[in-house]
Amino acid sequence: MPSHTSMQHSDPHQTTSAQASTPVPKATQLLDDLIKSPNDTRKYRLVELKNGLEVLLVHDESTTHSAASLAIRAGHFQDPMDAQGLAHFLEHMLFMGTEQTPEPNVYPDFVGQHGGQHNAWTGTEHTNFYFDIRAPQFAQGLALFAQLFIAPLFKPEWIAKELQSVEAEYRMKLNDELRRLYQVHKETANPAHPFTKFSVGNAATLQNYAENSLQQQLRTFFNTWYHARNMRLVLVGPQSLDELEGLSVRYFSDIAAEGETPSAIQAPLYLKSQQGVVVHVRPLKNACRMILTLPLPGIDDDYPYKTTTLLAHLLGYEGPGSLTSQLKSLGLVTDLSAGGGINGSNFKDFNFNIQLTEQGLAQYDTVCQLIFQAIRQLSRQDLASPHYAERQQMVALSFRYQEPIRSLELASQLSINMLHYRRDDIIQGDYLMREFNAAQAERLLAHMQPEQARVVLIHHSLPVNQTTQLYETAYRIAPLSEAQLARFNCDADVLLELPSANPFIPRRLEAMPLRDQDTRLPNLLAGVPALSLWHFQDPEFRVPKGHIYLSLALPRATNTKSAFAHARVWCELVLDALNERCYDAEVAGMQFNVYPQQSGISIHISGFSERQPELLSLILNSLTDFEFNPQHFQHIRHQLYHNWLAVNRHKPINHLFTVLNQTLQRGCYIGAELATELETMDAHSFAQKMPLIFAQMNVTALVCGDWPVDVAQRIGRALTHQLSLSGRPQQAPLREVTLLQPGKAESIHCQLPHPDHAVALFCQGQSISDLEKAAFLLLNHIISPSFFNQLRTEQQLGYMVGNSYVPMNGRPGLLFYVQSPHTGLAELERAIESFIEDFCAQLPQLPETLWQDAKHSVVSQLTDADPNLRIRAQRFWTSISIDDVKFDLAKRMAALIDEMSLASLTDIARQRLLAQSARLWLTCTQGNVSQAGQQNHANYGVDNEDD
Length: 947
What we know:
The protein is α+β, with helices and mostly antiparallel strands. The chain folds into four domains: 24-252, CATH 3.30.830.10; 272-383 and 436-488, CATH 3.30.830.10; 523-733, Cytochrome Bc1 Complex, Chain A, domain 1, CATH 3.30.830.10; 737-945, Cytochrome Bc1 Complex, Chain A, domain 1. The chain has 30 helices and 28 strands. The strands form five sheets. Strands 8, 9, 10, 11, 12, 13, 14 and 15 form an eight-stranded mixed β-sheet that branches. The protein has a seven-stranded mixed β-sheet with strand order 1-2-3-7-4-6-5, with helices on both faces. A six-stranded mixed β-sheet has the order 16-17-21-18-20-19, with helices on both faces.
């Protein structure tokens, strides 16, 4: 198979098998258990290896996958000034071969073959590598993983190739608004602070010098920072704690024991001249934002008290009378959040992120004045009770009823926690709120002064006078005037209110008694024909939580672009109206969303279950109450218009994905087309049209959680009443899929203002049978590592390279894609075509071990137990949405894969992937935004999917 380096993975099996019988010395035990949630059934042990590496061992008998995560106390802050981006480049290079396995990507390929995932990231002061894998292969995976940190090769030929990937990654994000804004932030901060270094790196910053090659630079960085005392390791799996300890000793004891520890940062993040300033930033997209930054000292030691969390809650509160509510009523903002911002060992930015109206931009001084008024108000209040006590109560509930997460997620999270928290607090550190720290609150509020503020305004019309060295962002920085500072230090004639007692805080703290113990699947409850109500009282995850899903099938909401645009505006208006009334519900651990989808409008509510029926009632009342604030309508229409115009303009691959969906699925539209519909939309015609959209309706609902059937039936009656559902079934919208014609070359070309070329090839299944779906899923799994290795690692065609299983309303498909900063469309198309031809030719020779591994991995994915209630509810809802009402599609597919022969899969691959099959090419080059390809639609068939 094309460049299938994973076929060379015999050594780890043999080596590990030989070592397994060798006695392994024990590590030094530090803690035999940790403070954990009462809902957490895992067992923990903290040990230290002879080289000083601290390892957290986690025994989870319920998981089928084991996971490992290694966190390093080093990131881009440790980059040399003359090699910025080196930490990030090292992250890339560690996958490019070790002394034991010299070829690149052996470790990730092995993980992928055995049902796992891997990833890594480089942050400011930390780097993290992690993977999961089927438990029986954990030892082999660890053998490969550990060698990344013991004996990486840094071969010059792979350094040269991977440097192209880093350059491609940099170029791909040249027009990314977050990167462009981040660069302004860096260039207006203290140049002596490591935050100002260029974290990504590119071909200009990562160079070979005669006296110091890039290979030497990588080796020096690795030897300096990648040592055991700078690392924390987490192993999670169904293996016993003793087994996990043995694995850690066996594979990680050879990591170097000594090196450097990052020294404390002495330089402040901002100079005096960089505070008390206003910064103008000119974006590429239409934006009207303000970020008011208040620089604080480092807050790492405050984690047991969460003082900034409390301040963020009080200042970002969105209920009646709040700062946000008052600014909205004045027509100055549409959204405000508080407390986010960069933070590190000696700094914390406390940000107010604000979506301004155009009026708000003109009056941003008023916005700032009210923010500082709110801060001064806090400094005069006793925040300990009820405000801190209430937050403390909710955090305690969140910890008590913490739901299990996947092993991979847990391992990564805990390894980072080990670098931040005391050993006792590794698990509970994120949830601790021991007591109100009045002195800390006073100190932090004292820092929140106008004279220290940085006011960042983002809008295309603002005057600018300089450009960043990287990403070419136009900006200006200037001091706030004396008049502005004086105004910010005075209160306005506006009354701001702190939150009152939260009525949504749960009172019922235990799951409701089980009454439906005999069922393991949702039941369809009797009701009116226009309502399909499914119910499942979960017998396994006994927490007082639940999920309510609703799908409102509205034929008149999605049959045209205009109708879809109206439905989206309506959803935003509903969310806007609900925000103030339901903000307390979100604070109290409930989440909700209202959004348009292919067949109508969907609602999802989750979290603590006690008050969810009440929240659902509020949402439904808002959804069918067709009175709205005309001013809010104009703000939302304006914002959506510009968002739709800008969507994916600077992301070629993402744009091709959108075009693919719009081309083949009814009810999917491109942003620019929807924006056109908003140009002539006015409040009066909108108000007249919306009741018509809701005139025909089918409702499907799932009530899944701790609710017994009688509660679900009450919810069903409320739905019937509030939505005026009659006994007459309405015709549900058809879920149409456009059929591609086999042997006919179909293509769509687009242009975007981005210099990269992008190509995607979609291969469509020719039936909706279980066998077709199973075959496409298995093909996607087998193809994935080979496609990435050949087109990304070896040919270096671009940074974004991959393939995906893409089902559309029950019809499977396979998508190949590449985005490149330097390779033309014709060559990219040839590379994809050549890969597919080689793959189909070589598939019959796939070794039996790899064939069985591939089948086993996909079967495991399909049959793995749900790790928590959220995943279970999501799975049930997906099944209901595709009419899999026996909830056994995954099992049926798994059985077919189990029985599938390599010869039969090869036949399907040749029939579905090669040039004569049903395929659609999508391409994108630089140019003015275009909507191309619509003329092809008349040549496609239409399939009405019912499964």
